[in-house]
Amino acid sequence: MILTQEQQDMLDGKYGEGVAYAMKIQVAIGESFDAERMVPITRAHVALSNQEADLWFAEKLLAAGAKCRIPPTVNPGFNLSFFTAQNMVDKEAASLMQRTHNAYKALGAVLTYNCTPYVATNIPMYKEVVAFSESSATPYVNSVWGARSNREGANSALCAAITGFVPEYGLLLDENRLGDIHVAVEAVMDSDFKYHLLGYMGKKIGEGIPVFTGLPQKIGPEALTNLGAQLNTSGAYGMYHIVGFTPEAPTFEAAFGGREPRRKVVITDEDLTQILDQISLKGHRKIDFAMFGCPHFTLKQVQYIADKIQGKTLKVEMWILASSLVKQLADRMEITGILEAAGAQLVSDTCPDQPCWGHLKGKIGITESPKLAYYPKRRGLDFVIRDLDTAIEAALKGEVQ
Amino acid sequence: MGQRYKCHKISEGRVRGQALVSKDAIMFYLMDPETGVVIEPQHDLEGKSVSNRILIFPSGKGSSVVQADGLYQLNMRGNLPAAMVVQYPETVLVSSAIIMEVPMIDKVDTEFYNRVRDGDWIELDADQGFIEILE
């Protein structure tokens, strides 16, 4: 890989040890993908996770004197003040979050603690070169906004934020953004939930860039968020196209750059039903809690739940996770009060895969997000997965059909 | 001497170990850090341990966070794979391997995939760009 004088100086330590370490990792990544050069970025999003590896890496960079050249927005850990006040976290968990907060603050990150920056706080322009990690974010910025990011890891995105550069390979190059697989959707896509299930078809879709046909002409940000999040739970996808909808796929031919698709996959209603059976606990049972907001719910989704449960009383706990921006709007618009009166909690800055949910260990929850059900398995949380209406109904009754 | 195949370095290093072949994509988070055993239901490697094996698999999968943390937790307990042989590398997997210093290669001849079996002894040298199935 050929570096500019500035990039070489970074690698040689003239900008400090932290920058040199970040650059060394990026050069290794670039060389493994046969990149010819490094190019500047103008935005970044780091999937901060408040896991031990995340803190270890952030503190290692910080100790070496690193500071972000491109201040990145960051993913949620958990809301330290809320969960401490509720007495829901032990000292060890609180200390982990405090240290993560301190490290990212000192590195110069923008402390958004939100996994959906692409709908509000960090929206790239068409063809803008960026470094986005977070499974739902990378496909969104590439596919929906037409920006250019590889499927960065939390660590490689942080390196990019520190150096201000990324190696040029993969989805940064025109020829690698063309579709590979024709995914003909025959299933009826009549809810945001169906996009969760469609995204979860990664095993059937296989490796490559999917090009979807057969989807409705109007698809909202919630559905697109779900699609990207689940594609990267069931597989590894940096981008997709939707013919006649996403900017780089005005036509079928344009999506594939005139080439023949490598293969065709048909997705039917039966496929979606089958995948749901595979990943969800069986129904017809009592549930202990409901959890939504993986990825973080939009104001529209929060309002939707509030409308459904207004004036009623939930049988079980309901947790709704959202950005601090959505939380503030909900407070101001007096949606939060409606939720709380019914027994639901709207919490900002928090992820389901965090040590703040200890009281739910061994219990059965309900959610509409396969990703939410998948990762917290390791923390002993199990879920029935159903569409949002059924899940809300289950929380009102304390059992699911 | 066994059969030697050329390959392409992703993450540096040279190791010898026993092969473990997965048909499914790998996610290091759903492994028990104490044993390296895959706990993901319906996974090709469910119930098997990746600890100190030369792990041969098509690709990584999972959120951008969990590969690094999964590997980190395995590392803390000495249960990292000895090396990784991947067909479809992507940035998340590659950066995690580089940071955790696990040797990793790709672009191995299909003949290797036809011949390699679980338990085969393998020598892998990412720096020299070869992988060998030892007799």
How would you briefly describe this protein structure?
The complex is a heterodimer of chains A (401) and B (135). With 401 residues, chain A is of the alpha/beta class. Chain A has 17 helices and 16 strands.
The level of helicity of chain B is 10-25%
* Name of the CATH class of the largest domain in chain A: Alpha Beta
What's the shape of chain B? globular
Number of structural domains of chain A = 3
Radius of gyration of chain A: 21 Å
What's the CATH H-level homologous superfamily of chain B? Phosphohistidine domain
Give a description of the structure.
The complex is a heterodimer of chains A (401) and B (135). Chain A is built from 17 helices and 16 strands. The relative contact order of chain A is 0.12. Chain A folds into 3 domains: 170 residues, 2-Layer Sandwich (Aconitase, domain 3); 100 residues, Rossmann fold; 121 residues, 2-Layer Sandwich (Aconitase, domain 3), CATH 3.30.499.10. Helices cover 40% and strands 15% of the residues of chain A. Chain A has a 5-stranded parallel β-sheet. A 4-stranded parallel β-sheet of chain A has the order 8-7-6-9. A 3-stranded parallel β-sheet of chain A has the order 3-2-4. Chain B is an alpha/beta fold. Chain B has a single domain, classed as Phosphohistidine domain (Glucose Oxidase, domain 1, 3-Layer(bba) Sandwich), CATH 3.50.30. The longest helix of chain B is centred in the middle third of the chain and has 11 residues. The chains are: A alpha/beta (401), B alpha/beta (135). Chains A and B meet through helix 2, helix 3, helix 7 and helix 10 of A and strand 2, helix 1 and helix 2 of B.
